[in-house]
Amino acid sequence: MDDDDRVDSSDRLVPLTGAFNFRDLGGYPGGNGLVTKRGRLFRSDGLHRLTGPDMEVLRSIGLSTVIDLRTPGELEQTGRGLLEEEAIRFHHLAVVQRGGGEAVGAPAPAGDDLAERYLWYLETGRSALVEALRLVAQSSNLPLVFHCTAGKDRTGVLAALVLDILGVERDVIVADYLITADRLELIIGRFRSDPTYSARMAELPVSRLTVEATTMEGFLDGLHAGFGGARSWAIGAGVLPEDMDRMRADLLEPGGSVSD
After folding, report:
1. Residue 46 phi/psi, 5° resolution?
2. For the segment 7-45, what is each residue's pLDDT rounded down to a tens digit?
3. Which residues contact 42 (CB under 8 A, 6 or more apart)?
4. Cβ pair 215, 205 in contact under 8 A
5. Sign of the dihedral defined by the CA atoms of residues 51, 143, 150, 77, in that order
6. Region of residue 89 (phi > 0: left; psi between -120 and 50: alpha; otherwise: beta)
7. Which residues lie across from 121 on neighbouring strands?
8. Among 46-50, 241-245, 247-251, 252-256, the least confident range
9. I need a surface site. Which of 91, 147, 175, 183 has the fewest CB within 10 A?
């Protein structure tokens, strides 16, 4: 998986039957002796297959808000499952809007480079990512989970933006991204057995089914070289500086190591 001993997946994965990649973004060093708070912000794969016992787990953590980054078509095909019956705020913020072509908006990058695709999300999914950051910055929305389908690409980009704004080191952001590698076989196995996704699986480029450090490294390189980092990108895209200051106040606390 990763070689950063500050990132331990064993105590941040939330054990659920209907989702394989639901995990806590707390416990990461944010610089100046601060760490990200546990139990406040989560990332996940699709949530439409959660079971009754899974819902009990989410109630126990006090989940308040769900941000769904999937396309309108994905949401229409699968629905929201048991989450629809819960008094949990739901925001559908599609990073990619399926339309007549690959997407409505800027054309997708040519070739099969995932890092370039992640940078493309910053353009084609700008409004969705900006609104997601605003929601994360509102304490009344916490605890909050954001997710896409596998919890890898669109979710990985939003997680990287949030962690970078919080001052989490590059190597830790990459290591958090790599946790999905250990979950991917389970996620892909479920896709292949699900009629909603099975036909499309054969059409996906090979890179979409991998989790490589170089992908997130390439995205972070482009984010910092092209925009000066997540905070600068967000301000340029329309997020208020005070929103990000509030995000830091709500999601960081004094602490020691990741394992504390």
Report:
1. -55, 145
2. 666 689 999 999 999 999 999 999 899 999 999 999 999
3. 14, 22, 23, 24, 25, 61, 63, 143, 144, 145, 146
4. no
5. positive
6. beta
7. none
8. 252-256
9. 91
Q: For residue 125, what are the CA distances in angstroms to 32, 190, 233?
A: 32, 27, 13
> Residue 43: which of 28, 27, 13, 23 has the closest Cα?
23
Per-residue pLDDT tens for 188-241? 888 777 766 666 655 666 566 789 999 999 999 999 999 999 999 999 999 999
- Supply 47's token pair: 């949530």
Among 20-29, 106-115, 159-168, the least confident range: 106-115
Is 10 within 8 Å of 46 (Cβ atoms)?
no
CA angle 124, 127, 130 (to 5 degrees): 120
Residue that is written with structure tokens 């605890």 in the block:
143
